[in-house]
Amino acid sequence: MTATVERDIAQKRRGLDMEELPALVVATPTDGPIPDDSRVASQTVLSTAALRVVEIAFGPGAELTEHSAPAPIIVQVLDGAVDFEVGGSVYAIQAPGFVHLPDAGERHRVSATRPARIQITMLLGAARDAHAERTSPSARVG
Q: Dihedral through CA 50, CA 91, CA 97, CA 21, nearest 10?
C-alpha cells in the first residue's frame, strides 16, 4: 500500500467516516497506554451501522460498574485479566479469552484484576434484526 493510501485510510479511520472505506476493513487494536491508576480509558476503533468496536484500557482495580449494552456484544480480553459478572456469576477471563452476551440489554459488570485491555464488539445489526423480528406483523399472535 502506498503512503498516500495509508494516510488517507488513517485519516478516515480517525474521523470514523466509514462510508468511504472499502467493504473490508482491517483494524488493529490501538495498544495505547494502560492507566497506571484505577482509571478507565476508552477509544472507538470502528463504528458502522452494523457494528461498533471499542477498546477499553483498565488501570489496576478499575471497573465498569453494572450496565447494559444496546446490542449483543463480544468482549475479548486483549491484555491482562478481568472479572466479568453477568447473571449473578463472576467469570475470570484472561487474554486472549472472550465472552459473548447474545441478548441486548443484559446487565453486566467488568473489573480489572490487574492492568488490562479489552475490546468490545457491539453487533448493532443483530439488535436491529431482533427488534424487526419481534415487531413484524407475522410475529404477532392474533
A: 20
The continuous run of DSSP H or E covering 54 comes out as strand 52-58
User: Which helix (H) or strand (E) segment is 79 a member of?
Assistant: strand 73-79
Which pLDDT score, from 0 to 100, does residue 125 have? 85
CA angle 89, 75, 68 (to 5 degrees): 65
Q: What is the pLDDT of residues 123-137, one digit of tens each?
A: 998 766 665 565 556
Per-residue pLDDT band at 56 (split at 50, 70, 90): very high
CA-based R_g, the chain, Å: 17
Q: What is the pTM of this model?
A: 0.70
Residue 135, φ and ψ in degrees, nearest 5: -100, 0
> How are the residues of the chain apportioned to helix, strand and coil, as percentages rounded to the nearest 5?
20, 40, 40
Report the alpha-carbon distance of residue 121 to residue 63 in Å, rounded: 18
